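Limitations

Structures in this collection are predictions, not experimental determinations, and the ligand pose is part of the prediction. Treat each record accordingly. The example that follows, with fe (ii) ion as the small molecule, is included so readers can see exactly what is and is not provided: the inputs are given verbatim, and the output is the predicted complex.
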Amino acid sequence: MLHLASVANWLSNDRKGHTLPRGLYVSDEAFAFDTQVMLKSVWLYACTVAHVKNAGDYFVFELAGNSIIILRGRDNEVRAFWNSCRHRGAKICLDQSGRAPRLMCPYHQWTYGLDGKLLAARSMAEDFDKADHGLNPVALENVGGLIFICLSDNPPPIDRVKADIVDQIAVYDLEKLKVAVQDDYIEDANWKLVMENNRECYHCDVGHPELISVLGTTGFGRDAPADDYLETKRAEWQALGIDHDVIEFPDGWWHRVARLALANGAVTQSIDGKLACQKLIGPFKVPETSSLSVWTQPNSWHHFCCDHVVTFSLTPIGPEKTLLRTSWLVHEDAVEGVDYNPDHLAALWRATNVQDGHFSMVNHQGIANDGYVQGPYAVEENLVEDFKDFYVDRAKAALKAETI
Ligand code: FES
Ligand SMILES: [Fe+2]
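Predicted complex:
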């Protein structure tokens, strides 16, 4: 049941430069609105092309009762379909991911091709037309190997995001990578708090000793490397064709892209700063002391290193439960136990995720308190404000469209 009046009231109490009204973080009404209205009006990051590497590979993305199959066809195209059979609606793919030569509904065995077309349906009337009963498609965009989906029939534009991101991540050639590790971690906090926490490093000095020893806090505007160091690096990046200016949520768009120098001689985002996979990726022939980061509203961030890629997606699963899915990708020819150790590969962000999960949980618990009042963002929390402004803007637009 949607209580749009409460949501409208909370949205009208948004304060510039301040956290959101309590109801938007902790209420059942806001959770229903976010998952049934707001998040269906925007592009959501779901997975990478490496998650559906071969024909027949599928990956199921779920958002509060909605289930979407992302599927690689025999023509190598990646498509998305509603995970609901065109017979009597049963869920078709029950596992989170897998591989199948065709999709067969577990109920009465209607069978679909990898392009979503209905291939077989027993005992139907003579005038039944299989061509009218293919799986219903969901809008999907492949942005340089990152798969975004939109659950609306009228998805918003995505062209500027593609124009700004594709070239920068194309060099990492995600089609040639494989998923080495995937962690599904549930945080006890509202999804917007998990996002806010991701958008600042105000908490990093105390909260993430492992992370800042390899990543520093430069991506969030502090401790910038010395100019002469950066000059040298930029010359190297130009030679590799990977030198680009920072792009920071331009003109109300929903993406940020930055190449950041790593700290303390680290050559990748690993727990000790040492290579996490011996097979380098992209244009890199030798270890590189920088990484490329991409952040998108409202549910993802990604880091591209010389030896692996790590991607994060989050989806709300309750007013105070959020699924954070982290995937580590390595070269498709890399051999586990020889070129990489999964525990070493995942250790840095696994530790960081747990630390962030704790911060988001205590944030949520404090906001659930009657004594909560909307608090001011710090100067270096400008990206948190960017996220919050995006949320309020899209929520108001979605609310308006819903109530017309
Ligand atoms: S509901 Fe899928 S075959 Fe009947
Ligand atoms: Fe953090």
